Amino acid sequence: MTRRAWLFGLLLAVPLFSLAVAYGIDLRLNSQLRAAAHQRYPEAPPDVLAGLTLRRLCDQDPTSSACEPANQTRWMMRGSLLAIGLGLGLLGAMWYAGRAARGDRLLLLRLFRPGLYITIGAVTVLIVLHAALAMAAIVMGESAFIGRVHGAFVLTIGLGAVLGLWTMFKGMASMVKAPQTFVLGESVSREQAPALWAKVDETAQHMGALAPEHIVIGLDPSFFVTEARVACLTGPLAGRTLYCSLPLCRILSIDELVGIVGHELGHFKGQDTAFSAHFYPVYRGATTSLAALQSAGDGGLRQVALLPAMAVLAYFLECFSVAESEVSRERELAADREGAGATSAQTMATALVKVHAFAGVWQGFDTAAADALQQGRSFINASKAYADTVVANASPASFEGIAETHTAHPTDSHPPLAARLASLGVEMEAVATPALDVAPANGALSLVDGAVAREEALSEAYQYFLAKRLGIDLTPEADESAESPEA
To answer: 3-class DSSP state for residue 230?
Structure first.
C-alpha cells in the first residue's frame, strides 16, 4: 500500500500542484476583474458581478490583452489534466496487461516487449510534461502572487529534466536489448570436446530439441542455456549457448548429466524456444537496466527528475512479475520432465538433489580461496578441491532443509526442489542414497577431453579475477598449494 501511495504521489504531485496554481491564478484574476467592474459600475447587481469571469469575457473578445493570463492558465489546466490522465491510464493499462498475461505464456510473450516500448515512450512524455508544468506553475504563480520570478529555481528544474532524460535514454538503450552474460569459462568446439558434444547432440536428437551452437565449460556450479550474448574467456558468443559446470560434472554421473542437459535443452523445444529467445533476454535486460538506472546519478537533479520514470518502470516489471513467475514455474517443471524423458525420472531426480544439496558448497570454497590468496597461497585445481570437499562431507545431513531451496540461475527462476520432485513423481527418500554417490565411476567429467588441464587453467583465471576484486597483489611466490576447504 505504501509503495502504491508513493507511486501515485510521484505521478500526481506535479500536475495537481500545477492545476492548483492555475486555479488559484484564475480565482485571483476573476477577483481583480470583479473589483475593477464594481469600482467602475458601483450600481451593478451583485449576481451579475459574481458571474463575471475573465474566461467568459475573453470568449466574447479573445483579442483583448487581458486574456493572455487566462489563456495561459487554461493551457496549464489542460496540460495538468493530460498528465494526470496519462499517468493513471498508464498504470491502469499495466495492471490490466499483467493480470491478463497470468497463466498465458503466449499472451505474456506478445504483451511484454511492446508494453515495455510503450511504457518507455509514455515515461519520456511524462518527464517532459511534468518539467514544463512545474516551470510554468512557478513562473506564473510567482508572477501572479508575489510579482517576481526566481529564475534560478526555474532553470534548475529545466536542467534537472534535461539531465534526467539524458540519463534515462542511456539506461533505456540497454533496457530494450538483450543483456550480456559474463561467465568465467571457455568455449569448447566439437574438435576440442568431441565426446561431450556427441552426448549433447544425441540428447537433443532424442528429445527433438534444437542443439546448442556453443558449449561453454566453467567453474560456476550451475548449468544453463541462453540465447543472450555470452562473454567468456575465449571471446563473445551469440546464439544458443549451453553452459556446463566442471565442478558439478565431477559429482554427476554421465546419465545424471544427460538429465540436466535434457532439462536445459527442453528450453529449446516447442513454444519454449520462442520464450528463451524473445522474452527472457529482454525481461532480464529490463530488470538489470532498471537497477542500473536506479543507481544512476548522485541523488541530485538527475535523480529527482528520474523518480517518476523509475517508479513507473518498476511498477511495469512488477505487474508482469507474477505472470513471469507462473510461466517460469510451469516451464521449469516441464523442462524437468523433458530431462527425465532423456534418461529416467529416478536419475533426473537424483541429479536435482545433488545440485540442490552441493552447489552451495562453492560459496564456502569461494571464501576459502579468498583466504588462501590473502595468505599467499592458491588452489592448483579449484574444481577438484571443490569435489574433494563434497566427497569428504557428503552425508544424509546434506539433504536437510533442501526441499524448499532454489537453484541459482543467471536468467530464469526455478521452483523449489520439493515441487520439482513432486512433478517427477519421485520421493526424496527414493533418491537420497544414490544422491550420496558424489564420486561416480562413470563421472560426467570423463566426457571432457583434457579436463584436468582445462580445470587448472580456469582455476588460475578464477583466482586472478578473485584477487583483482579483493585488491590482492599476486606475486610469483603466491603459488603454494592450498588445502581443500571444509564445508
So the answer is: strand
